[in-house]
Amino acid sequence: MRASTLRAPSLLEIVVGSILSVVLGAILAATILVLKPVEVLKEAPKDKELDATKVYYFEGRKEYTAGQRWRFKRDSLIQGHTIRVNEDELNTWIEEIYPRLPVETKAAKAASKPKAKGKANEAAAKEADGPMFSIETGTPNFRVTSDTLRIGVIYYINVFGNAFQIVVQSAGTFEKPRRDEDPIYYKPSALYIGSLPAHKLLMLKPLILRQVIDTFEFPADLQAVWAKLAEIKVENREVVFVRTEPEKSGS
């Protein structure tokens, strides 16, 4: 080989190659975190500490009898009154709008049974019905803390007969818009896709949250009420929907 045919890469080639390496590495790392399993719990275990290296998803409570109060409170909100709702009521309401999918019921039953060992457990993990590729969106779930509303959704994915779940969860509060005519919006301080902390992606966080929210469509009557809310706040493990004062007719 002639020496004249050898040349060092140009500065542009070095920069482009470095950028591509960083981007591909970031995409690979993000994919691994998204697919990393998230442990779903009802409450934190009392007999052991949580693993600081794991991401957990704590489901909100849904007690059917207590949740039935939502019907009365919904009507009261539509009629112009301020209401307070707890997570039982929120989860009962959302399940009436978005009933549980068959795959959710199946997954819940499987989670309640003792885990099998050996080949039987491996075969059960790979069992999936339907098309070669599918994504099903589960019913949203609410968990209310002293000052934060946590919202979670489980996506059930099937790829060539291999079924797995990706949990998308957020924790945040509500904020008033800058313009009075705009509705109040939910602002998460934390947003996880699987084990990926999407809230650290800065510019991409609002886009990801919007994609998740757009998956769902709320009833027209509640959309109309939302535009008339003066404030939404989380306090004492309840979400408070504050209606604007009704306009007084002239005398």
Q: Would you mind describing this structure in some detail?
A:
Strands 4, 5, 6, 7, 8 and 9 form a six-stranded antiparallel beta sheet that branches. A three-stranded antiparallel beta sheet has the order 3-11-10. It has a two-stranded parallel sheet with strand order 1-2. The model is unreliable at 117-128 (pLDDT under 50). It has helices at 11-35, 64-67, 69-78, 87-97, 102-112, 119-126, 204-213, 220-226, and strands at residues 39-41, 56-58, 83-85, 133-137, 141-144, 149-159, 162-175, 185-193, 196-197, 229-235, 238-243. The protein has eight helices and eleven strands. Helices cover 34% and strands 27% of the residues. The protein has one domain (64-243). The chain starts with 10 loop residues before the first helix and ends in an 8-residue tail after the last strand. A hairpin with a 2-residue loop joins strand 8 and strand 9 (196-197). It is an alpha+beta fold.
